[in-house]
Amino acid sequence: MSARLVVLVSGAGTNLQALLDAGADPAYGAQVVAVGADRIGSAAVARASAAGVPTFELPISAYADRDAWDQSLCDQVAAHEPDLVVSAGFMKLAGQAFLSRFGGRYVNTHPALLPAFPGMHAPQDALDHGVKVTGATLFFVDAGVDSGPIVAQVAVGVEDGDTTETLHGRIKSAERVMLVEWVGRLVRNGYLIEGRKVTVL
Ligand code: GAR
């Protein structure tokens, strides 16, 4: 039976689309069973709806405080009984309730080679720093900002004349492939997290 993925999104949803496409093949071993967003009307949620996947939208402004939002996110995700929760361009930090329920089975993809350039503007930060190589990182989310144990990374060269858009575009092409490959490996093979070290079995 396929593993159940709940994917959290905020924007374009190209990483989500890659997971939706991969899951169409039963041999992949994982299917997106629900998609959640922190805003109304994202392109990512439209992609999920087009694929017939249930969605939920939880704008933080609709809640009394961040803890109430976090609890609601936790409840909505839990209702879909995920084996793995995947943050794919989800521009919010999950809180304590969410992490205590899904810690160890919540991964995030980030457009830099962590621990370099955590945060919301990684491709711009990499360009500003003048690095020659950056990339993307898949990691298990912990209570810090982009600080959890690393599952996989892919390197992408910075080219002369790159803008944030051209660099992020090439990162995203490599990131999608990495995400699909390693989410598949995690759910098909199982994994161990020992301290900072992730081993896919
Ligand atoms: C991806 O590059 C993802 O790594 C990044 O947003 C993009 C989402 O693209 N996430 C972050 O920067 C999180 N800090 P998508 O909506 O097309 O999948």
Bound molecules: glycinamide ribonucleotide
CATH superfamily assignment of the largest domain?
Formyl transferase, N-terminal domain
Q: For the CA atoms, what is the radius of gyration? A: 16 Å
One letter per element, helices H and strands E, the order comes to EHEHEHEHEHEEHEE
**Biggest pleated-sheet summary:** 7 strands, mixed
State the helix count.
6
- Bin the strand percentage: 25-35%
What attributes characterize this protein structure?
single chain, 201 residues, alpha/beta, Rossmann fold, 2 domains, seven-stranded mixed beta sheet, two-stranded antiparallel sheet, 9 strands, globular, binds glycinamide ribonucleotide
Architecture overview:
The chain folds into 2 domains: 1-102, Rossmann fold; 109-201, Rossmann fold (3-Layer(aba) Sandwich). It is an alpha/beta fold and 201 residues long. The protein contains 6 helices and 9 strands. Glycinamide ribonucleotide binds at residues 11-16, 44, 88-89, 109-111, 120, 122, 172, 175.
